[in-house]
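Possible regression after last week's pipeline update?

I re-ran a chain I had predicted before the update to compare outputs. Posting the input and the new output here so someone can diff against the archived version. Not blocking, just want to make sure nothing changed silently.
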Amino acid sequence: MFTVPVLLSLTIATVVAAIACALALAAGASWPTALLSAGAGGLATLAALPRLLDPRDPD
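New output (post-update):
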């Protein structure tokens, strides 16, 4: 159903989102701000990771 790179990308994006939310809450942000930062962190991770996991190495 899921390939290993897809599962790895989703897992890492979830971890980054949770860390971003926790850091925002620890800094004193409100819940909506913390959730927005978590979403931004997760989306940025999903945007960057597939290029890093691409098996076709340009070198």
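Follow-up from reviewer: compared with the archived run. The helical segments are 4-26, 31-52. Marking as no regression found.
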